[in-house]
């Protein structure tokens, strides 16, 4: 069951100790939304703790982190903490919070705030707006429902959420409301030039050289409408980089002329058995969320992902074989 902003807000007020989390491998919308909700709940007089499977992404360190804790650092040490509510942010399915699920108890009320069209309504209380460009946009509506003024820190976090999930307002999920909400956030006194510099102008020389290396590995198929590249653990090790250092390269792939769908295959590190992360990006209406969903993942029409067990060649061949279905690579923004 989906609830209105007022219903969701009233139920939040009834709880006092919140465990806040989001999906594995958090990007801008997840990070910004988590930080904004943490600040908002604290201003309501609530006790909060942010726990996610992954550590705080370095790319967003310019945002106030407000005690973001990685699960491996919290588990054990935080067992004495008692929560009466879990707030899952930007998650279409509870499984997307990963190992944080271990902290959920039968006494906790689950709150689900999201914008994915594939959201399964897994919470006791769900506030899901599938027409919103980002979860940050949904959270802004919730803050307005509370009659509280959005402070500068929250405005900065929400702007990052919306800007990143709309591709700097270039993707077709961008709406009139996206621009309206962003204009209101700017009025709160944020410095968008500084924010954009942090988001898009921090590439190191080492990363740039790795980009040149990856360009040489690009492959295309389906008449040039599909482009893909793979990154092995050895590739990262030799260049002294991490998976997060490769963020943004898939958008470079997607922006190639005639490409409608781009795929990045990346070997996961330090796991038992072979594991590969697969990232999808698209344009011209290719719905990659459906394709990712077929392999246990999810996301949006134009940005999605999944994780598969198997070697890099095995996973790559499995995905590419599926992508040979030309009906999955269609034109037309939908």
UniProtKB/TrEMBL annotation:
This is DDH domain-containing protein. It comes from the Bacteria. Residues 244-319 form the DHHA1 domain. One of its GO terms (molecular function) is nucleic acid binding. Residues 18-162 form the DDH domain. It holds the Pfam family DHHA1. Signal peptide: none annotated.
